[in-house]
Amino acid sequence: MASQQELATLQAALSTLLGLPAAGQLLQLNSNTCERAYEAYVFSLCCDAVTRAGGNVEIRGIRSGASPNPIVFRGAPGNMASRDQDFAYASCLLNQRRFEIHVDVEYQGSSGALHEIDVSICDADHANAVRQANGTPKASGHNLIIAFECKFYESTPGVGLGRTFVGLTSDCTGLRLKGFVANVPSDKLGQYFSKSTRPEPFLGLNPLDLPSEERFIRNVEQVLRKWA
Amino acid sequence: MAEPITITDEEAAVVLKTILDHLHEIRAINVIDGIEESRRLGIEEDVSKEVGDRDRELKKVGTIRRRPATNIEMLRIVFQELRERLIVLPAIIDALENRLGHNQLVWRVDREFISQDLIKTVEANKADLRPAGVGEILSAYESVRDLIPDLVLPAKREVI
């Protein structure tokens, strides 16, 4: 049991932390914003994986082309072909194979339904065709190579979102890697994804856990090397 | 460095209330929602040992049971959630800069698909996610952790 003075010290330390203007700003952020930042982070790790595999990565804006400044990420899921903003994607080349990394774009599944995929790696010819036709990329054939569901949890993780992603990937064909990525570890989710047909879990992936980053990058790198 | 404190479940309830009052005061709505969601999910326990000696029919019963979190457990969960917002989120921006360069990073939406009133809730800039004063947060967080290390995860800010 703590003494009155010890409790007062703890309360004071807490008030200092929560009373900081920067803390207030971060705590008031919309969860959506945190989610989108996390997706951009996973996107950047995928870019790293391409470079590690010996490939080239060029960040492009759909309107401005190479090296956009600012780099515009989607604040909500949208169409790959949208030119409403200078949305960014990574144009990649590995062993003569061209592909692109996208954040938060919609794909058409084999059932015809549209699905939002947080971070996706798509064949470049298909992506170019999508932009030309102002259409929607298909998550079938060999168009969609890798799909990640990314979740920045701010509560105890449940299996709900994992279940949804399992359903989504069952509507996609030809995927080389399907992964569920989350900022916090979770035994429950780990167990849920332990069945061999389910997406690969990358739980506890965040910049403060370097081994988790390393494992993620290595996995993506290996899949891309094999594919290319 | 302050001596670590051991707090009881009752004392944890008081600390929890202090945090929640503050979050309500600044209208940290999504953080509060996250905490309440965690409270709703409770703690899952493996009770297989309890059913181990029972007869065949009872052994067919599921062995995971959910119970409400204690105040101490809730406090631990709350600190983890605060850590994600206050420590991990700014670190994500550092990591993005390290990998994508120091260009401006912004989040924007298709204007056709969203009402004007909601745009500010989904669009953001780098400074929204890593405001000035992140260093102060880190040191204040460590001060809290020094007092209750069993309940607060280390910040572990590592340079990439």
What does this molecule look like?
The complex is a heterodimer of chains A (228) and B (160). Chain A has 228 residues and is of the alpha+beta class. Chain A has a single domain (27-227), classed as Restriction Endonuclease. In chain A, 39% of the residues lie in helices and 26% in strands. Chain A is built from seven helices and nine strands. In chain A, strands 2-1-4-5-6-7-8-9 form an eight-stranded mixed beta sheet, with helices on both faces. In chain A, helix 3 crosses helix 7 (210-227). Chain A starts with a helix and ends with a helix. Chain B is extended, with a radius of gyration of 21 Å. Chain B has helices at 9-25, 29-41, 48-51, 56-59, 71-100, 116-122, 126-129, 134-147, and strands at 43-46, 64-67, 105-108, 124-125. Chain B has one domain (9-43, 71-147). A two-stranded antiparallel ribbon of chain B has the order 1-2. Chain B has a two-stranded antiparallel ribbon with strand order 3-4. With 160 residues, chain B is mainly alpha-helical. In chain B, helix 1 packs across helix 5, helix 2 (29-41) packs across helix 5 and helix 5 runs antiparallel to helix 8. The mean pLDDT of chain B is 90. The interface between A and B is large, with 69 and 78 residues.
